[in-house]
């Protein structure tokens, strides 16, 4: 079995315990992982705190920090296929997707490498004649970055890139489900030459590792991606240390198709939106909201494509849908489908686990027109699409916003004015018009409502890892006048 280490204070260590990671394609253990608990968390946070306040990182210019990030970007690009293979092995995400996504992750580090020495302070036009007042932007402090197993190198990059550009230090906690790629990535941090303690990478379980990390008194900010239930635990934990928190949570994103849309394009985008990554994507377009007049031909085309999808081994380049990451995930999907069918949803295709080892589940479509189906409200985090139809634009918007989540949305129409109206009305952090699932380091990303708050990507994300220090300098040599009057 392949053996991985945690990375704490510049050294590769065993962890306080060990656990086996399962290959979701076979259902058997393939790697031996380090389990960190309270003592490792203590060592990692203390190392990050020391690196923040003393030593080479604290004294480093922003330009030099940028150079380290550039070096890291090069190493990610050079090692993309190795990292992709580990991610595919450990999480079941298909190699076609992991190799492309990890190669692109290098661009996120490049973007923030360039930004490191462009984070500027300000001089204020203060309302007192004998004062100079300016703002220094300083790193917010030790950051706890907690990520789930899906797209973990990407979700770590959108935290590490801006936080390192801003001068923070971090403890990254990889998910206990498939932590291999992030633990391997720690080797690149080491090779890039980041001083000891600047980035620590650990993994472990929520209650013993994640909880100790997020309530630690030296943690100043928690950057979290995961589910809303865990987010509530984290908010309770940070009641202890009063750390600031950014939350990137789940979604139930609407995919709206008007009759005037380019239908071939919309069908392909819907396939990408719900079946790519086996639907295990926070932005999955999991609610198809289609104009009633085209529902039948649209669903027929979608069903045909869904049934032709190549399901297979994730390491095979020909595979289009691989296994789910965990059995727990498959059980959850099966139970939610059962409740939806009991509520009256009609199965269009798929619906039952496949007769093969591992955590496979086929592309599934549920027709939910006229049904209060739980599948329209709850996140599957799997390849399951729920379909409803509408007659008017107002009804489409009402259905789209009928969710507690608000992460992404898609609108397919050739009517420009309608695209603008829908954009204004949609309660979601991302609106894709005539496209879906596009991301970039340049574009902020984040949610409304139960999908969380805070934005990752873009310039503002780097500023979010800073806080301002206001400096007052008196320019007069005259003695300070009346000490009892506030100046
Ligand atoms: P999860 O919330 O179960 O776990 C995420 C991480 O939190 C893991 O590392 C886990 O160990 C840790 N954790 C668990 N309990 C904790 C606790 N008490 N304190 C601190 N940390 C704790 O999520 P998951 O099932 O692994 O991932 C799927 C979820 O993530 C879905 O809801 C999905 O939509 C969401 N997600 C969101 C985005 C986004 O950018 N908005 C991206 C990907 C995934």
Question: What labels describe this entry?
Answer:
globular, alpha/beta, 15 helices, binds nicotinamide-adenine-dinucleotide, 39% helix, 21 strands, 7-stranded mixed beta sheet
Q: Pick out the low-confidence regions.
A: none
Q: Helix/strand/pairing class, anyone?
A: alpha/beta
Summarize the amount of helix as a percent range. Answer: 25-40%
Provide mean pLDDT, rounded. Answer: 97
Looking across the biggest beta sheet, what order are the strands in?
A: 15-16-17-14-13-18-19
Count of individual helical segments:
15
**What sort of overall outline do the alpha carbons produce when their principal axes are compared?**
globular
Number-wise, the strands total 21
Bound molecules: nicotinamide-adenine-dinucleotide
What can be said about the biggest beta sheet? 7 strands, mixed
Alpha-carbon Rg, integer: 24 Å
Separation of termini?
A: 69 Å
* Beta-strand content bin: 15-25%
Give a structural overview.
This protein is 39% helix and 22% strand. It is of the alpha/beta class and 487 residues long. Strands 15-16-17-14-13-18-19 form a 7-stranded mixed sheet, with helices on both faces. α6 links the parallel β8 and β9. α1 runs parallel beside α8 and α4 (80-91) packs across α5 (95-115). The longest helix is centred in the first third of the chain and has 21 residues, at 95-115. The chain is globular. It starts with a strand and ends in a 13-residue tail after the last strand. The model has no long low-confidence stretch (mean pLDDT 97). Bound molecules: nicotinamide-adenine-dinucleotide. Nicotinamide-adenine-dinucleotide binds next to α8 and α9. Nicotinamide-adenine-dinucleotide is lined by residues 146-151, 155, 173, 175-177, 206-207, 210-211, 214, 225-227, 230, 233-234, 237, 248-251, 282, 379, 381, 407.
